[in-house]
């Protein structure tokens, strides 16, 4: 059905390494795999096997669970996206994160990776980390614009007043700096 690789950590692992909870849920106990060093596993590649036909409206969703926490969604694969390298954002042990995966006990004393067959439409994103990076990028660009505008602001009562061409000036400066310094844009992406 599916396989998993932990880059620089493992050979391909097939579904037989996971414990099947029911028809649509599997769990990998990280204590048996890496012990207490589960949080050092920061990414995972999951892939559909050639002979497995996942319905087009379904996805294999991946979740992680630290000891004593709830499962947290990391991403998914579909027939249209048959493999993915997902960043594993382990929740704080014992955290009260919202339970996302119905299989297993959230009060467990070991870290786990859960895989679940779910409706694609029910998933908010196939790649949570990419979504977070885009959000961070937008916030940093907005902060840069705000700081630039703030240096030209005047105050009129309870209103901030900026020159009419402030966005054009900021965008021109932003483009020039990006051309001069190749690391400038990279600093926004981190």
From TrEMBL:
Domain Hikeshi-like N-terminal: 18-123
One term of GO molecular function: sequence-specific double-stranded DNA binding
InterPro entries in UniProt: Hikeshi-like_C (IPR048364), Hikeshi-like_N (IPR008493), OPI10 (IPR031318)
GO biological process: cellular response to hypoxia; heat acclimation; protein import into nucleus
Domain Hikeshi-like C-terminal: 134-186
GO cellular component, one term: cytosol
PANTHER family tied to this protein: HIKESHI FAMILY MEMBER, PROTEIN HIKESHI
Family: Belongs to the OPI10 family.
Protein name (database record): At1g66080
Taxonomy of the source species: Eukaryota, Viridiplantae, Streptophyta, Embryophyta, Tracheophyta
């Amino acid at each position: 059905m599916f396989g998993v690789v932990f880059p620089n950590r493992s050979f391909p692992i097939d579904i037989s390494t996971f414990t099947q909870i029911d028809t649509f849920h599997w769990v990998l106990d990280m204590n048996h795999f890496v012990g207490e060093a589960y949080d050092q596993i920061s990414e995972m590649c999951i892939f559909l096997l050639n002979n497995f036909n996942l319905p087009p409206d379904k996805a294999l969703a991946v979740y992680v669970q630290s000891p004593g926490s709830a499962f947290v969604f990391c991403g998914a694969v579909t027939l249209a996206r048959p493999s993915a390298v997902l960043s594993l954002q382990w929740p704080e042990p014992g955290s009260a994160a919202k339970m996302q995966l119905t299989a297993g006990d959230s009060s467990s004393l070991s870290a786990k990776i859960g895989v679940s067959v779910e409706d694609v439409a029910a998933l908010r994103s196939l790649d949570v980390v990419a979504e977070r990076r885009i959000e961070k990028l937008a916030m940093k660009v907005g902060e840069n614009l705000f700081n630039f505008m703030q240096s030209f602001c005047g105050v009129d009562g309870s209103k901030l007043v900026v020159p009419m061409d402030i966005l054009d000036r900021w965008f021109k400066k932003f483009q020039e700096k990006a051309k001069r310094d190749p690391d400038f844009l990279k600093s926004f992406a981190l």
